[in-house]
Description:
The complex is a heterodimer of chains A (243) and B (543). Chain A is an all-alpha fold. In chain A, 66% of the residues lie in helices and 1% in strands. Chain B contains 25 helices and 15 strands. In chain B, the strands form six sheets. A five-stranded mixed beta sheet of chain B has the order 13-12-1-15-14, with helices on both faces. In chain B, helix 17 packs across helix 18, helix 19 (386-396) packs across helix 20 and helix 20 crosses helix 22. The longest helix of chain B is centred in the last third of the chain and has 22 residues, at 401-422. Strand 1 (224-225) of chain A pairs parallel with strand 8 of chain B, so a sheet runs across the interface.
Amino acid sequence: MTDVSTLDLLLWVVLPYMVLAVFVLGHVWRFRADRFGWTTRSSQIYESRLLSIGSPLFHFGIIGIFFGHVVGLGIPKSWTEFLGVSDHLYHLMAITIGLAAAVACVGGLLILLYRRRTNTRVFGATTAGDKLMYLMLSLTILFGLLATIVHSALGTYDYREGVSIWFREFWTLRPDPELMGQAPIFFQLHILSALLLFGIWPFTRLVHVFAAPLGYLTRPYIVYRSKDPRKEAERRGWEKVKY
Amino acid sequence: MRVMAQMSMVMNLDKCIGCHTCSVTCKQAWTNRSGTEYIWFNNVETRPGQGYPRGYEDQEKWKGGWELGRNGRLKLRAGGRLTKLLQLFSNPRLPGIEDYYEPWTYDYDNLLRAPAQQETIPTAPPTSLLTGERTEITWSGNWDDDLGGTYAAKDLDPMLKGIEEKVTMEFDQTFMFYLPRICEHCLNPTCVASCPSGAIYKREEDGIVLVDQDGCRGWRMCVTGCPYKKIYFNHRTGKAEKCTFCYPRIEQGEPTVCAETCVGRLRYIGLVLYDADRVTEAASTPDEKDLYRAQRDLLLDPNDPEVIAGARAAGIPHDWLLAAQRSPTYRLIKDYEVALPLHPEYRTMPMVWYIPPLSPVVDVVRDTGYDAEDAESLFAAIDALRIPVEYLANLFSAGDVPTVERVLYRMAAMRSYMRDINLGREPKEGIANAVGMSGQEMEEMYRLLAIAKYEDRYVIPVGHHESAHDLESTGTDCPLNAPGGPGMSMSPPEEPMGMSGPGYATQRRETVPRPEAGRVNLLNWDGTGRPEGLFPSPATGSA
C-alpha cells in the first residue's frame, strides 16, 4: 500500500468518494431546492413512433445491466463457488444474459440518439445539460461494452478478482487503489466515465431514476388531500401536539 | 353515509353563442406561458365536430375512463397498475402534438426588417413554437368552428357512429350547437387513479381536482386516463397541467374566470353534497344507460336532516351547508332534472353538467312554418327529429334517448308556458303538468334559467382558512399577535397555546405580564409633564 502512485490514489480513492458525496448531497439539494424540476421531461408528445421502440428497449436493457452489475460487483466469487457454480457456467450466464441486455440497451440508445438528433421538435427541447448527459452515458456504455468484449470475453482478465473487490472495499471504506491501477484500460475508462456520469447525475434529468413510482402498486386509486395542513398531518408523521 | 362537498358547474347550452370568450380569458389567466401554448383548460367545440384534441371521445382508440371488468368491478380501461408501470417508458395511448396542433407564432420581425419601398407587401409568416422553423398552419384549437371543415371530416366525430348515414343528407340544415368544456372535476376521476406518482388529488373540502406540480414526475398516464382529455402535458416543464376550477377565486367566493366572463351567462356554479361511500357502487352500475340516474342519486338533499347531521359530522362548515341549500346547480340537476352529465358512460361521475340545447329543434320548427313556441308542435318535433336527439343522447346519456327527450320536453314546455304569461294570457297549468312539473316550479325554473342574477347563478361559499391559520408554529401569523412578540413580555409562555379556543384573549391577558394595564385618555392631558400611565414605570435597577 505504501508505493501506490499519487495518480492511482486520486483516481481510485479520492475521486470516487468525492463523487459519492456529490451524488448523495446533490440529490438531497435537488430534492429540496428543485422538486419542480424532478421530472423525466418526456418528449413523447413530439414524437411517439421511434420512442415506442427505442425507449422501452433502452430502459429495460439498462435495468437488466444494472442488476448484472449488482451480481457481478456485489457477490464475491467465493459465494458462487460455494453454491457450486463453476467459473465456466458463471461466465456463460453472464455473457448470454449480459449480451441480451447490452443489445437492447445499446440498440435502444442508438434509436433514441438518432431520434433526438433528427427530429427537430425533440432536438429543440434538448438542453446543454441533456447533451452532456447523453455524452457521458454513451461513453460509459461504450467503454463498458469494450471492457467486456476485449478484456473479459476475448481476454483473460477476471473482473471478479479485481474490479469487484475494489468496488466492495469501496463500500467498506478501505479500497485498494492498486486493484484498479492494475485493471485493463477499458475497465479503468469505464469506471472513470461512470464516475463523471454519477458526478453530473443529480443535476441532469437522470434524477428521474429516483422517481420510480413503486408506491403506485399499493396506494388506493383515488387520492384525497386537504387544504388544511393539520388534516394532512393526521395521515402520517409525528404525533400531534395535544393542546 | 360519508358526506362530502363538491363544487359543480352547470352550463345551459341553449345560451352558448360560441364566442370563445371563456377560452380566451381562461388562457390569459392560466396558460399564457411557454409550453402551454396548445393547452386550453377551457375550449369551445362546435358539435357535430371532432372536438379537441381531435376525436378524443373515441375510447376504443384512447382508452380513457373506466370500464367494467368481467367480474363487474371497475377497472381502468387503459390497464391497471402493473400495466401502467410497464408502460412508463412509452405510453402507447398518448395523444401526440399533431392530435392537438403545432403551436405557432408569427415572424413579425419580418415586417420590421422589410426595406422601405419594397415592391411586394411584407408578411408575417407563421413559425412553429416547437422548432422555430417556418410552418404551415393546418389545425388549431377550434379549426372546425361553426362546422368549418366538418364536411371533409364529419365521419371523424366519434359521436356520429351509428347515425352517420341519417346525418349525411340533412347535415347542414339540421343542427349545430356549441359545447364549452372544462375539466369535469369528477367524483371518480381516472386521471387521479392513473397517476403513478400520486401527484393528482381531489381536494377534500370542495372536490376540485388538482395536480401537485412538485409531485408530478411527468409519467403522462393521466393524459391517457382522462377520457375528456382535459389533462395536458406541458412540453417545456414536463409536467401535467389541468383546469384548476380557478380555485384561488373559488376560495374567495368568486366564480371561475370562464363563468365570470361568459357573455351568454350560461354557467352556474354551486355546491352539491354527495355520499362518498357510494361513488364506486354508482360508477359500477352494470347498464350504461342507468349511469345518469345513479350519478344523480349520489347527490344528497341538503335539506334532509339526516344529510345535515352527516355533513356536520364530516366537518362541513355551516355556511357551506347553507350554500349547498341555495345551490343553483343542485336545483338544475336534482329538482328540475334538466342538467345531464357529459358522457356518463366513462364512469368517472363528471361534475360539470349540461342542459342540452333545444334550439336545434326550435329552429327546425320555426323554419318549417310552425309555431315554435307551441308546446304541441315542439313535443312533436322532439319526437320526430331523431338525429339531433340521438346525437345529444350519445353525448349526455350514454345513448339513452328518453332521458334527453324528457329534458327537451321540459325546456319546450317552459317556452310555451312562459309565452302565455308574457302575452298576458292565462297560463296553462296543463303544459307544466304534462312534463311532471307545477306551474310555479316552471316559473321558478324559468327565473333561474333566464333572468337569474349574479348572486343566484354563482353561490360560492368562501373557503375556510382560519383553522389552518390557527395552527401553532406555522409561522403564518403576525409575531405581534403571539405571546413573546414585540411589545409583549420577552419571557416565553408557559405552555404552547393555539390561537383558538374560548377565552384565549382574556387568558393571555392574565398569564402574560403586560408593561401597563389600563387605558390612557390623552383628552384629559394638559400638555405638560408625562401623562399618567402612558409609559411604563421604570423598573428598579434599570438604567
